[in-house]
Amino acid sequence: MQVVTVGLGERSYPIYIAKGLLSKPEILTQHIKSNDVVVISNATIAELYLEKLQFLREEYNYDEIILPDGEQYKTLASLEIIFDGLIQNNCSRKTTLIALGGGVIGDITGFAAACYQRGINFIQVPTTLLAQVDSSVGGKTAVNHPHAKNMIGAFYQPQAVIADIDVLQTLSKRQYLAGLAEVIKYGCIYDAEFFTWLDINIDEILQCDTRYLITLVQRSCKIKAAIVSQDETEQGLRAILNFGHTFGHALEVFHGYENILHGEAVAEGMMMAAYASQYFGTLSNAESQRIVKLLEKLNYTIRKYSAIDLEKIIQTMLKDKKIEIPGQLRLVLLNKIGDAYIKTVSTEMISDFLSNL
Fold this sequence. Notes:
This protein is α/β, with parallel strands linked by helices. It folds into 2 domains: 2-170, Rossmann fold (3-Layer(aba) Sandwich), CATH 3.40.50.1970; 192-355, Up-down Bundle (Dehydroquinate synthase-like, alpha domain). Helices cover 46% and strands 20% of the residues. It has 15 helices and 11 strands. The protein has helices at residues 25-29, 43-49, 55-59, 76-88, 103-115, 129-135, 173-189, 192-200, 202-206, 210-230, 245-255, 262-279, 285-296, 307-317, 347-355; strands spanning 2-6, 13-18, 36-42, 61-67, 96-101, 121-126, 140-145, 148-155, 161-164, 328-336, 339-346. The strands form 4 sheets. Strands 4-3-5-6 form a 4-stranded parallel β-sheet, with helices on both faces. The longest helix is centred in the middle third of the chain and has 21 residues, at 210-230.
């Protein structure tokens, strides 16, 4: 078993990475602080994996809340369903929430934990590759607004993250590829050697080979933990984790949350960001092509957008929560693979770039 620690002083917590963790109750129960437990999942994941947590029924005051499956349900309405369940079951500040699912369940459960009675414990049990390498780690919790991604949320850390590699075998190919996009991000922004390792071993990785999965989850979590430990609330360094996301979040809104996966939008956004890094004079053509070609092996591409569509995408980007100066976008760009930086660009500059893409 690999264990990565997110170092945040008294709020530090472990990320457990191995096969078969859902069959080892002690990994989970050591982080439950009281006798009250509520599992939050969605209909798809509950059917597959809720039975693995049935030991909780025998040892705790247990309840479960099952939400619909999909990014389109990452809303205040779903948050209200969780609060209704917690209140109806007289849950207290000692209750522990367990998020069993992908990024949507992890984000919304974490936000519910941050808000309910001003903060209760929760544990992440991510069941998608994207959630295991990214959204379950670092304490970003949120719900979406119809006009902006993750606009309503809080920084709130879990007690632990339990990443069972076995659950990835039931992922659809589409979900798996979406998770790999976030893995590639880490190589782009922070670790050139990791990017090269991914590039060399991409054929085996695409086959969901367990030997490679454990390595890529562990290395991704280690990079994110290192960044979060230095900058928990995204005042500086942590912003580089948004590589491709300013474009990607706008694409999610443009296409509709139910029509595009987060990782798919980020993959297209990273290709745009690679070209933007070259366009604004830092990244070489050879390195931007390495990034684009690796993402193309995952069957991603930049779609063709009309001038009207591009204007809509830009207007959505201008609602990004990371904007500090009205009309100015903060993009994560690359000097080279493994070396990211932040650049502020005007609406006119980004419009010129997208028009020439």
